[in-house]
Give the backbone structure.
Amino acid sequence: MRDQLTVLCVASYEKGAEFMRECKRQGCRVILLTSRSLETADWPRESLDEIFYIPDVNKEWNMADVISGVSFLCRSERVDKIIALDDFDVEKAASLREHLRIPGMGDTTARYFRDKLAMRMKAKEGGIKVPEFVHVLNHDAINAFAKRVPFPYVIKPRLQAGAIGIKKVYNADEMWSVINSLEDKQSFYVMERFVPGDVYHVDSIILHKKVVFSVASQYSLPPMEVAHQGRVFNSRNMLRGSEDEAALRKTNAEVLPALGILHGVSHTEFIKAHEDGSIYFLETSARVGGAHLADMIEAATGVNLWAEWAKLEVAKQGQSYKPPKDSGKYAGILISLAKQEWPNLSDFNDPEIGWRMKKQYHAGLIFSSDNYDRITELTSEYIARFYSDFFTSQPVPDRPGN
């Protein structure tokens, strides 16, 4: 029996460097499967034993070629784990596991963490509150929904990530205009009632279908509004032990087992309705949160979710994995598109700041403190300064690009 595990990481976007580094620290053989367009990306090459590139256009892969290529690789490599490092790779990894009969999340469960219709249906079956929704499929059912459920609605691609491709409609004419424009792609969309409210995310580690670590945070504005209307992106941890924080973590601990995840990590979003204060499940994922939220969580808790995910995956059936301890601090994050090519953040010099974004035409900060009120104060101050000093916007794409 081999002692060394071989982990195949699937990444059509530049993500998960710390996951790969931790796998190598744990003694694994680490192989990366990524897009040809990312050949010059800053991958942790010191931690990678092999890199294989897939021809791509806008990160789109031909899965028949991927399965054939990885199957050929497996003639000489005994792959033990296949890990998707981004939302768009969850289905790719599941298809590879199914074909190669490698343990892990298969096609059916993967759907609950990628397909916005499937996850809503499964959560509803499990007794979890979700905004009223309908599959954009049968036109009689859509008309019946429109008669029963008040506008506005959001029409969402089932298999995209974030706010990509989402349309908001305010009446039946707008609704049918958008639906008809989808032509033969209508069945790839779900429509749901737009629920005004505050949007939250809970980031978790799951072991044996049980959430063993979680931290709840609140967006200052819903991510859809940030993307579509052009706003500064912000999130900060919730007050620990507050009523809302406890309710969100409890709901999160019910949602994830209901969707069937055995072990891993998850970024899950909820909304607390202004109308009645109810908490509704919005969507989830079987990966670490994007937009540097993992860095914010590490600043608050001392826990790097990428590294913990790697430790959990390489632990033998999870038996030797011990969940991390939360250091109990608070953190916040701000990110904005910037008018300047390289924004100057030197005037932001408070001691709480632990991270500054270094990316063209972007400004970003992460700040942490033992004091929740201090994070709230800095968040308000920094958002105002970001709008004044850096902010610009551009339209959200209908599909992911390079």
User: Anything to note?
Assistant: The first helix runs from residue 17 to 25. The first strand starts at residue 6 and ends at 11.
